[in-house]
Amino acid sequence: MSLLKLENISYGYIDGNNKRMILKNLNYTFERGRFYSILGPSGSGKTTLLAIAGGLEKCQEGKVFFEEKNVNDIGLGKYRRDYLSFVFQQFNLIPYLSAVENVVNVMEITDNQVPKPYYKTALNLLNQFGIVKTKAERSIYKLSGGEQQRVAIARGLATNVDLIMADEPTGNLDTATEKEIIKIFRLLAEEYDKCVIVVTHSDSIADFSDIQLKLNEGKLTERM
């Protein structure tokens, strides 16, 4: 059974007197246990596609299905909160909270079952990604960019979701740290059976993914 299905997705922008279509009757099915990378030229619609797949933006035509349920029927707010997690280039952590508090925060608002006590569960999760207790209890500002991205990934897993989406997650990181983050995404797919979808310009991420997808002229195709 598919985890995420995009069916006849179309989307465009008004450009002067014309409507520029960046997604054209796009279809694709994503499965658990796979690490997908989506590449394409700037302006091709990669971020828009991710936003539609993740319920941040409504498609103008077509449908998005999660486990064969239309996400509009699930409710976009509930879909974003309980069914998937986003990892962004800018991390999007809450700056006045510590690393562990950032993770606990999402545990407290999800409807999914998360082991209690939340604080201990969050510490254990962060530790799996190399953020030990002394670092977990520090201010976000006292962590490196790579450490903050690990916190963001741990936060993404904290609500016990099957779908992880990332938009240019290594864009602000050096090459060595990028490789570490790529390994984590691979681990999430292989060991945790998650579906990981990463929008990227990085060939390093693409080469390490299970399936490379190219978005061009509104269509999504697998790179051979």
Characterise the protein shown here.
With 224 residues, the chain is of the alpha/beta class. It has a single domain, classed as P-loop containing nucleotide triphosphate hydrolases (Rossmann fold, 3-Layer(aba) Sandwich). 36% of the residues lie in helices and 28% in strands. It has nine helices and ten strands. The chain has a six-stranded mixed sheet, with helices on both faces. Strands 2-1-4-5 form a four-stranded antiparallel sheet. Strand 7 (163-167), helix 8 and strand 8 form a beta-alpha-beta unit. 38% of the residues are buried. Residues 4-224 form the ABC transporter domain. It comes from Vallitalea longa. Pfam families: ABC_tran (PF00005).
Topology, please?
Layout: E1 4-15, E2 18-30, E3 35-39, H1 46-53, E4 61-66, E5 69-70, H2 71-74, H3 76-82, E6 84-88, H4 99-109, H5 118-128, H6 133-136, H7 145-157, E7 163-167, H8 175-190, E8 195-199, H9 203-208, E9 211-216, E10 219-222
Parallel strand pairs: 3-8, 3-9, 6-7, 7-8
Antiparallel strand pairs: 1-2, 1-4, 4-5, 9-10
State the helicity in percent bands: 25-40%
Low-confidence stretches: none
- The outline comes out as globular
Order of helices and strands: EEEHEEHHEHHHHEHEHEE
Distance between the termini: 24 Å
- CATH topology: the name is Rossmann fold
For the biggest sheet, the summary is: 6 strands, mixed
* Relevant CATH superfamily: P-loop containing nucleotide triphosphate hydrolases
Work out the number of β strands: 10
The Rg value, from CA coordinates, equals 17 Å
CATH architecture: 3-Layer(aba) Sandwich
The average pLDDT is 92
Q: Could you say how many structural domains there are in total?
A: 1
CATH class: Alpha Beta
The percentage of residues in β strands lies in 25-35%
- Structural class, judged by helices and strands? alpha/beta
Strand order within the widest beta sheet: 6-7-8-3-9-10
Number of helices: 9
Family: Belongs to the ABC transporter superfamily.
Protein name: ABC transporter ATP-binding protein
Keywords: ATP-binding, Nucleotide-binding, Transport
Organism: Vallitalea longa
